[in-house]
Amino acid sequence: MALLDIANIETWYGPIPALRGVSLGVEKGRIVAVLGANGAGKTTLLRTIAGIVDPRVGGVSFAGEAIHGLDPDKIVRRGVSLVPEGRQVFPLLSVAENLAVGAFARSDAEEVAKDLAQVYALFPRLEERRAQTAGMLSGGEQQMLAIGRALMGRPALLMLDEPSLGLSPLLVVEIFGAIRRINETMGTTVLVVEQNARVALDHAHDAHIMELGRVVLSGTAAALAANPDVREFYLGIREGGIRGQRRWRRRKTWR
Amino acid sequence: MNGLAVGAIYGLTALGFVLIYKATEVVNFAQGDLLMLGAFIAWTLVVPLGLPYVLALVLTIAAMAAVGAGLDRFVMRPIIGQPHFAGIMLTIGLAFSIRGIASLVWGPQERGLPTPFAQQPRNVGGVLVQESMLAIAAGTALLCAVLYLFFRHTRLGVAMQAASQNQLAAYLMAIPVKSVFTLTWAIAAAVSGIAGVLIAPLLAVELNLWIIVLKGFAAAVLGGFGSIPGAILGGLLIGVAEQLVGVYEPSAKGITAYVVLLVVLFAFPRGLLGEPQGKRV
Ligand SMILES: Nc1ncnc2c1ncn2[C@@H]1O[C@H](COP(=O)(O)OP(=O)(O)OP(=O)(O)O)[C@@H](O)[C@H]1O
Ligand SMILES: [Mg+2]
């Protein structure tokens, strides 16, 4: 049984369907990437899991229990944390206060202190800037803070919405390296949504591709990275020969 | 000194505005009526029931906190997610309702709330000050200190700040945002209740006490509408200005608050301690 099980969910914004029947499972201990173009429904998928919006049809279960329909704060307490699109740090609180708020639901002070040390070890820059107001941090530092803040809740499943957004290529690799380390050293399962397919496929174990509110392709990250359609449409690698020259004739195989 | 004492009351009213606005983005125009209600509750406890002043103060704070929590839970919560306009209309309606209930229960007559503080002036560092004015100033300062410590140094206080800065992210940190709103209303109503008790030596307990809301609103805007120290500072400034104008030109006293407000907003469009255009998502 998968740690997270999404069964045929449909999520609507008023009359607009954003998810049109999505099913996918996230196995414990894996890093799972969800790729897709703008408007594919990636953010909506994470918002639905986190309880910010409710699915109209279908269900989400985590560790064997249904979590759809719960308020977001209840879902966090079950062990599912979301690092939202655009980081959303608390701009007027200091770095240390932001991290403390991340542990709001916990009462095990000693373990919280250990996790804080782990976050600072993961992102030494946060420790250097711990007294600084979060609104004054650079984009990359805010992303680190947003991830660290989510980790302070000690989630079993960490969800990230486009952590690479607006960061320099070097910083993107640094952030994904950290995600990898979180997964390996803390055993946290990761579900990450990305537009940057290259770096996501390089760091994930499994991947899914979404288009127009549906999952159209799933597999291991390595298998997807080798798929000719993915290479062409998501990695921008044009194969030589007839296929490359007659690209306009080709239809994606999954339609 | 009288000006400072009056200003402190304005500041506390402004503080109520700011607390609720920062947390819920609703401008609570019932703030003045809550002050009036607090004054009536205290009067009832002290005069007909004969309780000692301090006990009455504590009970008034508790009662007002319960009123605030109830208002949020049963009146404001159902409209979460509606346009701001709806929230403002609702608080105006609330103001009229509180006034209506108070007039049914207590009627239109003016009453005095006896306080243990003497009216005769005392010499404080070379200045002659009435003990009752001193009590208002000290009470306000103490309250501000308590609120400061709460918001800066307790887990719940920091979480409440977080919720006011980014509601979505607060939810994602497992902060029960709706309960934070309720707690904020409870605190704001309790602050109004304290103001209603402290005001006793300055004004009689009567229905028209709600009018303080206009000065409180001006003080909140003056301070930057969103800044807690700004609210108190704005209140003090208006109180002192009114006092000075009242000495030289009593007929102009009524409009002083608004003149000060216009002048300050001209110089500082964001208010005295307004936050620089924050990243609000
Ligand atoms: N609050 C909203 N109200 C109405 N429609 C929305 C809302 N949020 C998203 N949508 C629509 O739902 C669809 C999916 O949006 P979503 O934000 O999930 O896409 P995404 O894959 O995260 O895109 P991006 O890569 O640009 O972040 C889009 O067509 C979008 O216009
Ligand atoms: Mg998105």
Strand and helix map with partners:
The complex is a heterodimer of chains A (255) and B (281).
Chain A: E1 4-13, E2 16-26, E3 31-36, H1 42-50, E4 57-62, E5 65-66, H2 72-78, E6 80-83, H3 95-102, H4 109-122, H5 124-128, H6 139-151, E7 157-161, H7 169-186, E8 189-194, H8 197-203, E9 206-211, E10 214-220, H9 221-226, H10 228-233, H11 241-245
Parallel strand pairs in A: 3-8, 3-9, 6-7, 7-8
Antiparallel strand pairs in A: 1-2, 1-4, 4-5, 9-10
Chain B: H1 2-24, H2 31-46, H3 53-76, H4 84-106, E1 121-124, E2 127-130, H5 131-153, H6 155-165, H7 167-172, H8 177-198, H9 212-223, H10 228-248, H11 253-267
Antiparallel strand pairs in B: 1-2
The site of adenosine-5'-triphosphate has 12 residues of chain A, from strand 2 and helix 1.
Provide an overview of this structure.
The complex is a heterodimer of chains A (about 260) and B (about 280). Chain A has helices at about 40-50, 70-80, 95-100, 110-120, 125-130, 140-150, 170-185, 195-205, 220-225, 230-235, 240-245, and strands at about 5-15, 15-25, 30-35, 55-60, 65, 80-85, 155-160, 190-195, 205-210, 215-220. The longest helix of chain A has 18 residues, at about 170-185. In chain A, the strands form two sheets. In chain A, strands 6-7-8-3-9-10 form a six-stranded mixed sheet, with helices on both faces. Chain A has a four-stranded antiparallel sheet with strand order 2-1-4-5, with helices on one face. Chain A contains eleven helices and ten strands. By secondary structure, chain A is α/β, with parallel strands linked by helices. In chain A, about 45% of the residues are buried. In chain A, helix 3 runs parallel beside helix 6 (about 140-150). Chain B is an all-alpha fold and about 280 residues long. Chain B has one domain. Chain B has helices spanning about 1-25, 30-45, 55-75, 85-105, 130-155, 155-165, 165-170, 175-200, 210-225, 230-250, 255-265; strands at about 120-125, 125-130. A two-stranded antiparallel ribbon of chain B has the order 1-2. In chain B, strand 1 and strand 2 form a beta hairpin. Chain B is globular. Chain B starts with a helix and ends in a 14-residue tail after the last helix. In chain B, about 45% of the residues are buried. The model of chain B is unreliable at about 275-280 (pLDDT under 50). At the A-B interface, helix 2 and helix 3 of A face helix 6 and helix 7 of B. Magnesium ion binds near residues 43, 85, 161 and 162 of chain A.
